[in-house]
Fold each of these.
Amino acid sequence: MDQQLIETVTRLVMEKLKAVEAQQPLKEPKLKAETRSYGSVKVWDHVASGREKITENPVTPVTESTARQTKPVEPSATGANGGRKTGIEKPQNKEQLLTLMKQTPARIGIGRAGLRPKTDTWLTFRLDHAAAVDAVYGTVNPELLKRLNLFSVATCVSSKEEYILRPDLGRRLSEEAKKTLRERCKYKPKVQIVLSDGLSSQAVDTNAEDTYLALMQSLKNLGIETGTPFFVEKGRVAVMDDIGEVLEPDVVVLLIGERPGLVSAESLSAYLCYRPRKGTVEADRMVISNIHAGGIPPVEAGAYLGNVVQKILKYEASGVSLVQKEK
Ligand code: B12
């Protein structure tokens, strides 16, 4: 997407969010488990009765566990369940089965050949699995980092194998990385944005640019200062604690590749934390997950993230602490 378009969409989403908040301040009693409406934005709560349908617009607060349900379900990239054809011969209630299949990208209603999956189901599974492995083992396109003007730093991980086996090492910056950050980054910024490949380089290649640009735009519109962005190679979420120690920002926003499922291998997450430091508890982090074309569209996610950052700064808290302060 070109930058001007991102600016326009970000502005529109932010205006919509403002209008929604004006109509229904966030301090209202917590919404009940049912279909809810934010202005023209309809949200379906999957933990409740599951009786109503989905959204017109997927911009919803993260605390309401809507992230994965914000868009009508897309088939897997390679088409698992994709054509919505049931693999069951002569189902008792075909219409109902198709309705169920439309609610989830999971491989339901696929039928079987004797005790085994059907050939096309098996091949699709193999293809999706291969895409997931590629996403984990791949590397982020250096052109993208160049385009976004991001320099790279490393964690204490030396290879992909080690990355998988030793999550603790992916949570720590190398000594050289710390030195580089001290030399090249703004110290004590309000917001530090960081990108990392995490468990899917594909997620970064496909969705990080639009999310990042929309987030920057959104923070600019809100008048919130940002630090010097950079990329962390083979990072884990908690690497933000080391970043917090070195640069002491008020908020860290980490855009990182999610563990690929067999539905999407290119899903990006944004993890946020107020003043992450050594010893930060997991409950003080928050996440907006499922950022990809079939989930939360990247530009909308970026615009929404700006609003979340604003709220974190206002309450000087994130995660469970934020929810408690908001009450
Ligand atoms: C793997 C995973 C886990 C693993 C993490 C273990 C590990 N070391 O990898 C376990 C089983 C522990 C887990 C637990 C939880 N998870 Co989880 N998890 C995921 C999953 C499938 C992938 C995450 C990922 O790839 N992260 C990127 C990699 C690079 O991160 P990492 O550094 O290797 O691991 C860290 C993150 O995974 C993070 N994390 C994992 N889940 C959550 C949830 C929240 C709210 C936060 C702040 C952080 C977090 O904790 C890990 C350790 O620091 C996502 C699904 C998705 N689509 O993203 C759900 C997901 C992120 N989890 C979710 C939830 C709700 C939880 C729990 C709150 C469940 C519970 N009731 O206990 C806990 C919270 C854990 C926490 N850290 O605070 C939700 C978040 C919904 C939301 N939008 O707020 C998601 C989106 C699943 C879903 N669709 O509902 N999770």
Amino acid sequence: MPISFGLACPACGTLHLINRSFDRGRLTPLSRSDCVYTMECISCGKRICFSKHDLKAYSVSSLNFTTGYARRGQYTATQPVSTNNQSRSRNATEMS
Ligand SMILES: [Zn+2]
């Protein structure tokens, strides 16, 4: 299962994978300094405004990875590495 950063539509839940979306020019940067973009949902047409901080890693099928989007229920959000308990306690030890 490929993992890619993406953004799920808040209205219909369709996941848009950013790696392909950028190439297709679906995203419109509003301000490069703020990393803010708008995107039109491929499924319901809703205008989504987001920043790079809103992107999360999702596990999708190879087919969805190729098409660049996945319907609700066809993707799984993966846990960010930064919330891992072991790495957090190790960092705390190094800082003390
Ligand atoms: Zn939508």
